[in-house]
């Protein structure tokens, strides 16, 4: 089969790789139907995630069809259409029992495309399949569902829930990429008074308006003045960092009001300065987090009911074997206008079943 293999800093290629096989009775093998590229994959290529070793197939978001299941798998069976979660859960360790699947100590957590081969391939082995894949409702197209593997749970859990968005709040989201846009959509579930999106790309700010931002600001043009004007100088109740850069995190800490919340969602590869000399007396709560995906079943039900506009974030589609082209388009989002790119899906040809 083919997979997109990481070779080191800035290097990866679509190439022949061994077919995956069931190694544990809790494994499932999934034929990938649709897959997407995450900003975290770009961080890997930039060297921000050093745990990823050369030779690893990248990717942690996909939908597909079960083609083989280990003897202990009970919740899915061959021919089931499933969503592959970006987080793998053993279901038994201390953290999984608390619903903190991202911190799994039983061979799970974020492992796909990180510690083991991932989803940007024709086939993928998913450990702990009972809790790590979700049967897909027939009403949810695969291209739309793949956005529920990571970006919507991440934005909702690490941004909206950690930030404790409440009715009447002023919410600022720094970064209008896919994560920031999904945060706009899911923050609306809690009826804030206003949502302000901050970015440097006009196309992304326009997408933010389309998805529900009440105001937008160019990050280079004193967004703090807009926030101050709209809040009588108090600052925002909740500020979410959805970029993963030191300057954006530091901006978030300047935009939050006393007693407010800063929810960091972005993946950081460099240190950021925490200005405690300004923050120590302001009762500010700062949260970080790796998504647990405990909200995925709820988000799937909402998508099936037409309550989540996941498809509106998809700007480009490609056949599965156009991975290198898709990465180039996604990495140059400022030029291409890319938000979320999807490879495979119902509009493209099926891959062949590997020989036994």
TrEMBL record:
Its cofactor is Zn(2+). Keywords: Metal-binding, Oxidoreductase, Zinc. SMART domains: PKS_ER (SM00829). It holds the Pfam family ADH_zinc_N. Signal peptide: none annotated. GO terms for molecular function: oxidoreductase activity; zinc ion binding. Residues 8-343 form the Enoyl reductase (ER) domain. The keyword Metal-binding applies. The keyword Metal-binding applies. Belongs to the zinc-containing alcohol dehydrogenase family. This is Alcohol dehydrogenase. It comes from Streptomyces fodineus.
């Amino acid at each position: 089969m083919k997979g997109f293999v990481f070779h080191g800093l800035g290097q990866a290629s679509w190439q022949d790789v061994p077919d995956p096989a069931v190694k544990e009775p809790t494994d499932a093998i999934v034929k990938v139907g649709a897959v997407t590229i995450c900003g975290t994959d770009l961080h890997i290529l930039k060297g921000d995630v050093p745990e990823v070793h050369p030779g690893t197939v990248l990717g942690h978001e996909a939908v597909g069809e079960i083609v083989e299941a280990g003897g202990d798998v009970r919740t899915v069976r061959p021919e089931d259409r499933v969503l592959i979660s970006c987080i793998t859960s053993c279901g038994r360790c201390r953290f999984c029992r608390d619903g903190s699947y991202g911190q799994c100590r039983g061979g799970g957590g974020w492992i796909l495309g990180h510690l083991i081969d991932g989803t940007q391939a024709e086939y993928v082995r998913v450990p702990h399949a009972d809790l790590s894949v979700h049967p897909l409702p027939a009403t949810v197209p695969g291209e739309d569902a793949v956005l529920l593997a990571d970006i919507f749970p991440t934005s909702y859990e690490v941004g909206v829930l950690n930030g404790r968005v409440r009715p009447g709040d002023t919410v600022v989201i720094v970064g209008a990429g896919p994560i920031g846009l999904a945060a706009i959509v899911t923050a609306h579930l809690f009826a804030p008074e206003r949502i302000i999106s901050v970015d440097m790309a006009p196309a992304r700010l326009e997408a933010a308006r389309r998805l529900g931002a009440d105001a937008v600001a160019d990050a280079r043009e004193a967004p703090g003045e807009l926030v101050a004007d709209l809040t009588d100088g108090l600052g925002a109740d909740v500020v979410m960092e959805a970029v993963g850069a030191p300057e954006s995190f530091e901006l978030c800490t300047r935009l939050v009001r006393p007693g407010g919340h800063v929810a960091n969602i972005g993946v950081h590869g460099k240190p950021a300065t925490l200005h405690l000399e300004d923050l120590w007396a302001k009762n500010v709560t700062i949260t970080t987090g790796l998504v647990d995906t405990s909200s995925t079943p709820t988000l799937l039900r909402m998508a099936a009911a037409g309550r989540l506009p996941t498809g509106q974030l998809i700007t480009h589609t490609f056949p599965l074997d156009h991975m290198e082209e898709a990465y180039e388009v996604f990495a140059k989002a400022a030029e291409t206008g890319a938000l979320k790119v999807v490879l495979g899906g119902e509009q493209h040809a099926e891959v062949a079943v590997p020989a036994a």
